[in-house]
Amino acid sequence: MAYKISKWSLAPLYPGYESAELENAFDMIEEQVSSFEGVRGKLTPEISSEQFMQVMQVSEDMNRIANKLYSFAGLSFTANTQDQAAHSLQSRAQQFLAEIENRTLFFNLWWKELDETNAKRLMDASGDYRYYLEAMRLFKPHTLSEAEEKVVNLKNVTGVNSLTTLYDSITSLYVYKLKVKGKTQELTRGQLMRFAQGSDPKLRAAAYQELYRVYGEAGPILGQMYQTLARDWHNENISLRKFSDPLAARNLANDIPNEAVNALLETARKNAGVFQRYFKLKAKGARCKKTPPL
Questions:
Q1: How far, in Å, CA of 46 to CA of 110, rounded?
Q2: CATH code of residue 32
Q3: Could you tell me the mean pLDDT of each successive run of 10 residues in the chain, 294 residues long?
Q4: Are residues 24 and 153 in the same domain?
């Protein structure tokens, strides 16, 4: 059977932007956070493993709904970046969840500062939460004060998040022209990339050339956006959080040693000639196949 492309449905998450289920999600998170804030005074080094697991369960339930809400808002915007209702919902969700994160930040900071003995005691009893808790403590050397972390969270809403939304809104309007079987088609980027990844080498080349042509014409605007995002990344992760280099922040989030990533990159650089030679031979072979027999 031929696959028929159809519009995705977000109904399994929420029925719509103005549905009662969606509004209930906002209310439910608010109620859960208000309850969660009450455990702040119970977070001591001597907290029992039973109490700690109760806190973790509440945290998981709260984050599960928050992630569902965030995903619905983000996917709605991605489905149509020109839909003002989707744009408004995404902005609302980002602002709301940033404020929620700030109200629950105390747990994250307490856990990172907890002494090794009690941290190990609680992790030993944490079951499936263990890796989550271990990974959280890896960021201790790069964590700021509670007040500073709150400012960063709010800054991101009107900073990098807004800039990324603007980038998506602008680039989704780009139109690409590609000649397919003698007929010029006007395509979106998603439609264009089907040809960039197809089996026809000429169409692949033409698709990439068209992609770079359109992006090249908007170079100054997109370049400024990229520079701003790069500076924001540097300011937060190098200047404030004191990571050794820009990649180190991403490596830690992925729980991969810097040494492993650097070795991979260096090996790729040293062997670039091997890949270049391979593609030259592949291109030569493709030309030979087209040569008619004598």
A1: 13
A2: 1.20.140.70
A3: 79 94 96 95 96 96 96 95 95 97 97 98 97 97 97 95 93 93 92 90 93 88 92 96 95 96 96 91 70 50
A4: yes
